[in-house]
């Protein structure tokens, strides 16, 4: 069996089951083995019923069924099957949802090993959805870590686990492509051991070692890509240096506010770049609300006053439209010499044709759109500046596209993800970096609170009050749909689809509630975001897909469910969706746990709105113990690695990448080990490196 074989190569997986795997973006054996556990569940020893605690944790008991199972039909498509079991220490209930067949599976007077989550229900100790485990299976798994995989309706964790065993047993692991000398130097497992033990570790330490190898590998190939990119984007000569224009300062003086010192510093750096003998390739890194937009406007103003075109790329069509409308407002307010045009996929064929003609003829000087504006049949009259964001890094592919048209523009990348400078230097090694670490004085700080689920009713009442005052709200859930399997001792995770219905019932009928998630098609997502932006929706229930893509100053409330499931940096990014207008904004973090370490971490958000401080605290507090939090937002979507919590591994990978790359390009003959690494890179990695998003 090979990594690139289809998932149907596994016994027992036909087309119907394969379609379920496709929902999880699993199409090949490689997709399956890189479908890593999101958590692990430890199989503990069997305990007495009298020792059970209603702590939502998973336990195993050896008990006798003492009452005949009863099935009650609550409503259509909902049934509950219950039975009473006991051992010498006491008795408890067992409960199954929508599993009426369990009525025939349990025999009164017979003993079973039950394993499930324990809660207190109607003042009675209750084990929910317990699995019946054979003595042999229990002995094979006790004291081991069982993987908890992301699953989907119709495809259980147990089914994925079985398929994973089959895949790992049948896979032909090739020679390890990371040189042995590097594995020894950085304390890395070999590939076969790492892949097996990330899924089925004998101990927590085994899992940590396996994960380090795989995270190291993710970072290593990423940094190699950065090094290649850096060599391919050597600073180019600016064949048309711009002239400094007094009108830029006049425009600054006319603003209804003063620029912060950080804004002044960054603008001076950009102006120097654009007027120098080298093309600008700069990253402006600033927290949400730090005023990056006005700096971008100034760059466009300088470009246009020098009689050139400027382009602004947004991550979504909705945000592109909003930026376009903002430019129109600036023209009306300040009389700026901007002649803007909007180019997105949502335009009609006629509108697109007119926009392209205007761009080619030079009758427009500001082009706003998505990444598509740099592709295909779009010809520019005199493009000299491209402003984009971290979701769409401007890389080699775009440069080549423009170079073929005889265009070499200045590049300005805007990032709203505050990260420590050391990490920024690694991740953005091909760019000059500017940091905006100061917020405008007129920004109202967001008011935060961290609460448990008991606060939910009050939170709903507060949202209803804000909506009644003409405001809007976001609600964030970690999942799209409910999973049909209880995840061991994990708390129930809120999902967008069911939560939307729950919210519609809890809020007044006049409140318009809709949902948004990443599995919707692009047209549906754009429509929903446009409706929210136009205030045709009051409350938007969403996954983290709203981190980028929409700007709604009228939104004043952000409620995050299962806040403990997110990293601090990501929660801060989500919080940045509110507080964009003149009204006071609020963020409510609801957590299902009262663990001290989790509460300490979340309290950081309660005390501070400083993204740079939060990112450093995220690294300090999460540490190696929180290995499976939801990935940080932005373009760096590693499968396992996290640039915050794994900063140490990232730095080691950088050292390794630098050594391997130096050996590769120094003109000598690399060792056989190093040659094997570069063959693997060229055959399996390089072709897939997306220089657009790297």
Report the mean per-residue pLDDT as an integer.
Answer: 85
Name given to the CATH homologous superfamily of the domain at 447-608 = P-loop containing nucleotide triphosphate hydrolases
Q: What is the number of helices?
A: 23
Biggest sheet, strands in spatial order?
11-12-10-13-14-9-15
Helix content: 25-40%
List keywords for this structure.
694 residues, alpha/beta, DNA polymerase, domain 1, OB fold (Dihydrolipoamide Acetyltransferase, E2P), Rossmann fold, 23 helices, globular
How would you describe the overall organization of this protein?
There is one protein chain. 39% of the residues lie in helices and 19% in strands. The protein has 694 residues and is of the alpha/beta class. Among the domains are: 1-40 and 150-172, DNA polymerase, domain 1, CATH 1.10.150; 44-142, Beta Barrel (OB fold (Dihydrolipoamide Acetyltransferase, E2P)), CATH 2.40.50.140; 447-608, Rossmann fold (3-Layer(aba) Sandwich), CATH 3.40.50.300. It is globular.
């Amino acid at each position: 069996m090979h990594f690139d074989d289809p998932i149907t190569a596994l016994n027992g997986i036909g087309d119907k089951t394969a379609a379920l795997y496709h929902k999880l973006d699993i199409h090949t054996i490689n997709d399956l083995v890189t479908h890593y556990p999101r958590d692990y569940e430890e199989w503990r020893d069997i305990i007495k019923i009298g020792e059970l605690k209603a702590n939502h944790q998973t336990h195993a008991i050896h008990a006798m069924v003492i009452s005949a199972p009863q099935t009650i039909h609550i409503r259509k498509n909902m049934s509950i099957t219950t039975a009473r079991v006991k051992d010498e220490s006491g008795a408890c209930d067992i409960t199954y949802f929508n599993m009426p067949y369990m009525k025939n599976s349990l025999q009164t007077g017979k003993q079973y090993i039950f394993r499930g989550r324990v809660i207190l229900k109607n003042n009675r100790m209750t084990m929910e959805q317990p699995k019946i485990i054979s003595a042999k299976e229990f002995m094979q798994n006790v004291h081991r870590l069982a993987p908890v995989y992301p699953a989907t309706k119709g495809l259980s964790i147990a089914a994925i686990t079985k398929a994973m065993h089959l895949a790992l047993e049948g896979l032909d692991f090739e020679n390890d492509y990371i040189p042995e000398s590097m594995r020894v130097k950085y304390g890395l497992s070999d590939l076969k051991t790492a892949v097996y033990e990330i899924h089925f570790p004998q101990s927590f330490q085994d899992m940590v070692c396996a994960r380090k190898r795989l995270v190291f590998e993710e970072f290593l190939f990423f940094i190699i890509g950065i090094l290649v990119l850096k060599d391919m984007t050597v600073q180019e000569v600016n064949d048309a240096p711009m002239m400094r224009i007094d009108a830029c300062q006049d425009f600054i003086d006319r603003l209804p506010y003063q620029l912060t010192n950080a804004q002044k510093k960054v603008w001076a750096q950009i102006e120097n770049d654009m007027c120098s003998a080298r093309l600008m390739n700069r990253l402006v890194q600033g927290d949400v609300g730090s005023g990056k937009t006005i700096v971008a406007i100034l760059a466009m103003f300088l470009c246009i006053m020098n009689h050139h075109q400027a382009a602004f790329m947004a991550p979504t069509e909705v945000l592109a439209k909003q930026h376009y409308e903002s430019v129109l407002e600036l023209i009306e307010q300040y009389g700026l010499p901007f002649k803007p045009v909007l180019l997105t996929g949502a335009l009609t064929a006629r509108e697109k044709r007119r926009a392209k003609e205007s761009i080619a003829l030079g009758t427009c000087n500001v082009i706003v759109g998505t990444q598509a504006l740099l592709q295909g049949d779009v010809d520019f009259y005199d493009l000299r500046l491209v402003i984009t964001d971290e979701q769409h890094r401007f890389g080699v592919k775009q440069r080549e596209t423009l170079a073929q048209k005889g265009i070499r523009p200045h590049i300005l990348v805007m990032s709203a993800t505050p990260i420590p400078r050391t990490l920024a230097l690694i991740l953005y090694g091909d760019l000059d970096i500017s940091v905006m670490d100061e917020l405008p004085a007129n920004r109202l700080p967001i008011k935060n609170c961290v609460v448990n689920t008991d606060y939910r009713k009050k939170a709903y009442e507060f949202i209803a009050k804000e909506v009644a005052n003409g405001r809007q709200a976001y609600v964030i859930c970690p999942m799209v749909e409910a999973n049909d399997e209880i995840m061991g001792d994990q708390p129930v995770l809120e999902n967008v689809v069911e939560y939307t219905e729950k919210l519609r019932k809890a809020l007044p009928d006049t409140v318009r509630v809709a949902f948004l998630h990443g599995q919707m098609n692009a047209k549906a997502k754009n429509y929903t975001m446009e409706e929210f932006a136009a205030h045709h929706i009051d409350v938007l229930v969403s996954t983290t897909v709203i981190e980028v893509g929409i700007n709604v100053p009228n939104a004043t409330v952000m409620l995050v469910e299962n806040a403990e499931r997110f990293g601090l940096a990501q929660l801060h990014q989500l919080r940045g969706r509110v507080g964009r207008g003149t009204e006071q904004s609020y963020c409510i973090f609801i957590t299902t746990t009262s663990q001290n370490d989790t509460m300490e971490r979340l309290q950081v958000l309660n005390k501070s709105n400083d993204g740079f401080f939060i990112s450093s605290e995220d690294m300090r507090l999460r540490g190696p113990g929180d290995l499976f939090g939801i990935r940080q937002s932005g373009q760096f979507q590693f499968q396992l690695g996290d640039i915050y919590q794994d900063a140490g591994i990232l730095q080691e990978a950088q050292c390794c990448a630098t050594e391997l790359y130096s050996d590769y390009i120094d003109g000598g003959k690399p060792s056989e080990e190093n040659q094997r690494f570069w063959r693997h890179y060229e055959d399996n990695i390089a072709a897939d490196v997306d220089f657009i998003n790297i």
